[in-house]
Amino acid sequence: MSSAEGTAKLEIRGAAKTYAGKTGPVRAVEDFSLEVRGGELVCILGPSGCGKTTLLWAMAGLHALTSGEILLDGSPIIGPRPAEIGMMFQDANLLPWRNLRKNIEFPFEIKKRPVDEGRVETLLREVGLAGFESSFPRELSGGMQQRASIVRALAPDPGVMLLDEPFGALDAFTRDEMNLLLMRLWSETSKTIVFVTHNISEAIFLADRVVVMTPRPGRLARIFDIELPRPRTVEMTFEPGFIELIQEIKRVVESGAQHTVEVA
Amino acid sequence: MSEVPRELRDEVPSFDDGPVHHDHGAIDWTGLTSIRGAKSALEIGTIIAIAVCMFFGLEAILRLTDTPIYIFPRPTSVVTALTDDFWLQYGHHLWVTLQEFFIGFAIGSTIGLVLAAVITQKPFVEKVVAPYIIMLVVTPMLALVPFLRVSLIKGVSMWPIIVAVALASGPMVLINASTGFRRTDLAKIALARSYGATTFQVFRKIRFPLALPMIIVGYMVGAIFGLLTAIGGEMVSASEQGGLGRQLIYFSSLIRMENFGAVIMIIAGLGISIYVVFYFIGKRWASWES
User: Fold this and answer.
1) Which of A104, B40, B52, B247 is 20 to 30 A from B26 (CA-CA)?
2) Using DSSP, how many helices (H) and how many strands (E) does chain A show?
3) Strand order in the sheet with A8-21
4) Rg of chain B over all Cα atoms, to the nearest angstrom
5) Among B219, B199, B195, B58, which Cα is nearest to A108's?
6) Of A194, A222, A207, residue with least CA distance to A11
């Protein structure tokens, strides 16, 4: 875990975020530090309200931290950096008034950049959406919408992808399918991925490392190295070692109060 | 979200009466197939049949009871009156009313839309402005026409009515468009911002499209209120050019009820046209919301 300074793609240093709540300040995240190496797939795992989304939005430059800083390639993130960071939100978050093609072209439109037609075509074929370009989101199933959302996030080819419980609203089967698709696309590129989820087995299934957070305030509890070989299959999730790991992580999540912070 | 029963949804009147879109392709051709076509032809046929029944039924009742024409004009005499000397009796006045309506509506709706976009950005401004908007909505603007006629500069005599139309339609657009602009979808705004969107891009590409269905509803309601105000204003205090409202007063004072009926038919036609225009605008630009 001791990645020397400089090799870290994304570096979170002493992040803290306090919101002004109705009954006083709410400490969403406190004293959170983490280094994510280039090309790594890290899952941030924790129960609802543990500040994982807060943290991810700060990484995306969508809001500022109360204290601490986040560095991308050594330079602090003070606002959105669309060329380097791509974000996927909860649910598909497609724009319902645009058809699939227009949704996928949205990032290019915002940046006033020509659409990388070839890349979009390839991605659409890869996720099995070729031929649906002129369909509107409401005409597509949840899984198809989610795949379109993946294409939209990948089309501008950012080096870092931040995913905020993107598959939370899908049924278990579609979720597995999406996770496999995500891992396939990830293995074909060298992207750095930070994936936020509250689903333990999803986190283990996907990640190189699982970062467990405890709630109120959100702190880093422990980091688990996942040694499962790649490519991963759904069958692996039924093996005893996998299930033991789920239980171990579950214990860490539940014993939230005693935070054994592992120094990265 | 899609599981919420239609009647429980806090949503805009929908424009989704058209054929249901299926999974494939952009255009749904099933509406043209014989079964659906036959069904809608049956519907249209029934609507026409009811209209015909009402027309001749009324005619029959009025003839059987021997009702004098000055009490209630017969449908056939209304039609005859409508075609007789159309331009002088109605056409010119229709043109006057349309000018008042279109100029007033253009001014009122534009101001209403721009104000809605601006005030919804600042909750304080919105709260301060709200009582005045409600006052404008609940006050019948046509009652202002005589006052406006006295207080406005003489010359272009349509202006009092144009101002009243703007005052009637503007707040309707404002209220509905504000509801639309208030529907902020944080995730979609964050999406745009994560791609580096400017405030104006967020407005143009997220807030505005999100508000568009409500804006269209506002324009439709505003247009209908504007038309009513134009005609009512003419009834209260018409310019020397006249207008359909002035003709209503003119014909009723002469007890020419068949001409009176003809003017009512023209006004009804205008109202229906407004509805149809906005129905199709809604279908084209707001059909994603259903």
Assistant:
1) B40
2) 7, 10
3) A24-37, A8-21, A67-72, A75-76
4) 23
5) B195
6) A194
Q: Contact A156/A183 with Cβ under 8 angstroms?
A: no
Domain B85-285: CATH architecture, name and number where available:
Orthogonal Bundle (1.10)
Each residue's pLDDT tens digit, A195-204: 999 889 899 9
Using alpha carbons only, what angle is made at residue B63 by residues B59 and B68, rounded to the nearest 5 degrees?
105
Looking at beta carbons, which residues of chain B come within 8 Å of A72? none
Q: Which residues lie closer than 8 Å to A206 by C-beta, 6 or more apart? A: A41, A43, A179, A182, A183, A195, A232
Q: Which amino acid is at B115?
A: L
Cis-peptide into A166, omega within 30 deg: no
What's the CA gap between A67 and A216, in Å, rounded? 17
Q: Could you give the CA distance from residue A59 to residue A45 in angstroms, rounded to a whole number?
A: 16
Distance CA B212, CA B218 (A): 10
Residues 70-129 of A with CB under 8 A from B: 80-82, 85-87, 89-91, 93, 95-97, 99, 106-107, 109-111
Of A57, A61, A134, the CB nearest to B25: A134
SS3 B117: helix
Q: How far is residue B275's CA from residue B279's CA, in Å, rounded to a whole number?
A: 6
A 10 A CB-CB count for B131 gives: 9
b/e B165-178 (16+ beta carbons within 10 angstroms → b) = bbbbbbbbbbbbbb
ipTM surpasses cut 0.90? no
pTM of the predicted structure, to 2 decimals: 0.79
Write phi, then psi, for A215 (nearest 5 degrees): -85, 165
Distance from CA of A81 to the nearest CA of B (A): 7
Residue showing tokens 């989610």? A146
Residue pair B194/A59 in contact (Cβ under 8 Å)? The answer is no
Q: Side chain identity at B33, as an amino acid letter?
A: T
- DSSP character for B68? -
Angle between helix B257-285 and helix B208-237 axes, rounded to 10 deg: 170
Task: Enumerate domains of chain A plus CATH numbers.
Answer: 1-84+159-264 (3.40.50.300), 92-157 (no CATH)
Domain residue ranges of chain B, discontinuous segments joined by +: 21-64, 85-285
Whole-number Å distance between alpha carbons of B52 and B34: 26
Reported as a single tens digit per residue, the pLDDT across B35-89 is 444 557 888 899 899 999 999 999 999 999 998 988 889 999 999 988 888 888 8
- The dihedral over CA atoms of B110, B114, B120, B121, expressed in degrees to the nearest 10, equals 170
Residues from chain A that touch B191, judged by Cβ atoms under 8 A, are 87, 89, 93, 106
Question: What is the 3-state composition of chain A as percent helix, strand, coil, each rounded to the nearest 5?
Answer: 35, 25, 40
The answer to whether A242 and A78 have CB atoms below 8 angstroms apart is no
Pairwise CA distance, residues B227 & B222, whole Å: 9
Q: Say if residue A254's pLDDT is above 90.
A: no
